[in-house]
């Protein structure tokens, strides 16, 4: 019963992770955030493998999923520090999020709740010709705090998922040990019941 309950809870957490990361992936695509896009893609694959291991009693898959969650939490902590500009980090850097391939920012920068985008004409002399120069005002929530909220949700789900992943691996291992103890297939192999013969063999003598 405990194993079923733990597995069901972990499967639910994996489902929530998939829904939330797919939503985040869509907005990262819209904002051309290449580094988060690649990391999100890896996360989606490993969560699917973790879900498969949970359903199919594969402790190795669940263990790998738990190890990845540690890295996933680290990445999201970095994202939070990036957007809050902790230390020398700057949210206006093009190198980290877009690999310096574009000047795009988070999709939420222009499309956040209450944001009003106004084109600036004429654009400043330093602005590239193929880019527009805009002014953004009236946002109820700045885009960096939206990104911080997304990362905070991922950290929360990852921490809960890590706890339940360790719990499920422990329960599966205990069930396997219990199966071996009550007569499962052990390392010596299985031998079926042998029939005993009730016939008595008598020696035969040949006359010369």
From TrEMBL:
Topology in the lipid bilayer: Multi-pass membrane protein
Pfam families with a match to the protein in the record: NKAIN
A GO BP annotation: regulation of sodium ion transport
InterPro entries: Na/K-Atpase_Interacting (IPR008516)
Listed name of the protein: Sodium/potassium-transporting ATPase subunit beta-1-interacting protein
Listed GO CC annotations: plasma membrane
Transmembrane segments: 34-53, 65-86, 153-172
Predominant location category: membrane
Record-stated family: Belongs to the NKAIN family.
The entry's keywords: Cell membrane, Membrane, Transmembrane, Transmembrane helix
Subcellular localization(s) per the UniProt record: Cell membrane
């Amino acid at each position: 019963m405990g194993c079923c309950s733990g597995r069901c809870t972990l499967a639910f957490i994996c489902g929530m992770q998939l829904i939330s990361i797919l939503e985040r992936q869509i907005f990262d695509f819209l904002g051309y955030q290449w580094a988060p896009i690649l990391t999100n893609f890896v996360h989606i694959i490993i969560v699917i493998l973790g879900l498969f291991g949970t359903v199919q009693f594969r402790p190795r898959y669940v263990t790998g999923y738990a190890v990845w969650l540690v890295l996933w939490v680290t990445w999201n902590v970095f994202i939070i520090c990036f957007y809050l500009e902790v230390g020398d980090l700057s949210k206006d850097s093009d190198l980290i999020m877009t690999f310096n391939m574009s000047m795009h920012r988070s999709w939420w920068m222009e499309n956040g709740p209450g944001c009003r985008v106004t084109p600036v004409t004429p654009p400043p002399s330093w602005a590239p010709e193929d880019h527009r120069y805009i002014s953004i005002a009236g946002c109820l929530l700045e885009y960096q705090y939206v990104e911080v909220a997304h990362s905070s949700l991922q950290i929360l789900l990852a921490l809960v998922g890590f706890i339940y992943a360790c719990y499920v691996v422990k329960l599966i291992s205990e069930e396997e040990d219990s199966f071996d103890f009550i007569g499962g297939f052990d390392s010596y192999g299985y031998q079926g019941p042998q029939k005993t013969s009730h016939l008595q063999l008598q020696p035969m003598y040949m006359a010369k």
